[in-house]
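so my prof wants the structure for this chain in the tokens format not the other one, which i didnt know existed until like an hour ago. anyway here's the sequence
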Amino acid sequence: MTSALIVIDVQNDFCPGGALAVSHGDGIVAPINAMMAGFNLCVLTQDWHPKDHASFASNHAGAADFSMTTMTYGPQVLWPDHCVQSTDGAAFHPMLDLTSADLILRKGKNSAIDSYSAFFENDRKTTTGLAGYLHARAVERVVLVGLATDYCVAYSAVDAATLGFQVQVDLRACCSINLAGSLTKAMTQMQQAGVEFKE
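here's what i got, hopefully its the right format
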């Protein structure tokens, strides 16, 4: 069975010292690097936001970081500015092995729509093209790792399962934000979608 490792958003802004740091986020880099050789394909995703992105609290007058708003596609967390295109914060962690990547997929480029999933933007209609790429490469099974477990990893995992892939999330190489119970909610959603976990 052809398998792909999908490495979600291991970028400077999601690691300690970054604009939207996940606690111990840099601790998963070495385990991810060690895993890469065991897969037929390796895909890296990269948040790549314009400065005027609608998910940034700074682009909403008076809005606080981590507050909620409603977009045309539904509820949206307003995040601190992060992973702005061509900034150091948007760059991959310097120790992440980029030489093993078969594909680097940039997401969140549309200023009007956030994009947690590697497969769909948050309107749940606009595709990133990743599913088509994986199908063209005869991938049947995907393993997801990266940042953060309860947002971009979980959304990607649920979408992959919905699209018919066998899906595993390797929790040993993930870290979560856990914003207002988001980790418990995400784990439940992944389990309901048939995602397997490795701990």
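also thought this was worth mentioning. Helices lie at 29-35, 130-136, 149-162, 182-192.
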